[in-house]
């Protein structure tokens, strides 16, 4: 198999994968996605959108969650390094507010999968850090929520002292505010 599961976190819903590569004196080749392997692992096989961002060291993007259409995300770094985070923000979830972070680099070839109902974000650890992420739903700005990256209740330990954050992400809600918002009514824990 071209992928190894290196960890399952937050009740097994956040999955860290490592891509295997064929390496020789010319460089390397790897399969970044295979429908049959993903199906075997119980992961989504239908991706609707792929995004590619480039950030400078210290940039924090997120935490974002979208509910219509539902959006799972699969993140990987293709240049540099990033600290990727997933936070359970599903109303009524036994793991509400729990987070998991993992360092993704072009060299370690790791990916992190976080399903619908998890807010996602990352911190660029290098200059010109390129992150690519597949989404199971098309982006809809009208049904996107933003959770504040530094919410003390969540307590993410970001690997940067003075993050560079967009104005929109600076205005993200605390988890408590999120749970009282109209968006949270759509993001319920499903048993």
Describe the structure.
The chain has one domain: Jelly Rolls, CATH 2.60.120.10. The protein is 8% helix and 43% strand. The protein is built from three helices and 14 strands. The strands form three sheets. It has a six-stranded antiparallel sheet with strand order 1-2-10-7-12-5, with no helix packed on it. Strands 6, 8, 9, 11, 13 and 14 form a six-stranded mixed sheet that branches. A hairpin with a 4-residue loop joins strand 1 (3-9) and strand 2 (14-19). It is globular. The relative contact order is 0.23.
Which spans of ≥5 residues are poorly predicted at pLDDT below 50? none
Shape: globular
* Number of separate domains: 1
Strand content: 35-45%
Name the CATH class. Mainly Beta
Rg (C-alpha, Å): 16 Å
Major sheet summary line = 6 strands, antiparallel
How many H/I helical runs?
3
What helical percentage do the residues reach?
Answer: under 10%
Walk me through the topology.
Layout: E1 3-9, E2 14-19, E3 21-24, E4 27-30, H1 35-40, E5 49-55, E6 59-66, E7 73-79, E8 81-88, E9 99-105, E10 110-114, E11 118-124, E12 129-135, E13 144-146, E14 164-165, H2 167-170, H3 175-180
Parallel strand pairs: 6-14
Antiparallel strand pairs: 1-2, 2-10, 3-4, 5-12, 6-11, 6-13, 7-10, 7-12, 8-9, 8-11
Offer a few descriptive terms.
single chain; 191 residues; mainly beta; Jelly Rolls; six-stranded antiparallel β-sheet; six-stranded mixed β-sheet; 3 helices; 8% helix; globular
């Amino acid at each position: 198999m071209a992928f190894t599961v290196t960890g399952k976190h937050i009740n097994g819903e956040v999955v860290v994968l490592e891509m295997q590569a064929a390496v020789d004196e010319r460089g390397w080749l790897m399969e970044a996605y295979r429908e049959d392997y993903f199906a075997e692992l119980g992961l989504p096989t239908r991706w609707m959108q792929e995004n590619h961002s480039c950030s400078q060291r210290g940039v924090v993007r997120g935490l974002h969650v979208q509910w219509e259409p539902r959006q799972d995300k699969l993140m990987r770094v293709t240049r540099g390094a990033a600290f990727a985070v997933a936070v359970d923000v599903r109303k009524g979830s036994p793991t509400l507010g729990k987070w998991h972070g993992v360092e993704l680099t072009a060299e370690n070839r790791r990916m992190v999968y976080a399903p619908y109902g998890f807010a996602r974000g990352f911190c660029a650890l290098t200059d010109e850090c390129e992150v690519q992420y597949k989404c199971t739903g098309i982006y809809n700005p009208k049904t996107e929520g933003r959770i504040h990256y530094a919410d003390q209740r969540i307590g993410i330990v970001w690997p940067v002292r003075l993050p560079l954050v967009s104005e929109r992400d600076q205005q993200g809600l605390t988890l408590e505010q999120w749970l009282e918002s109209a968006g949270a009514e759509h993001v319920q824990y499903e048993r």
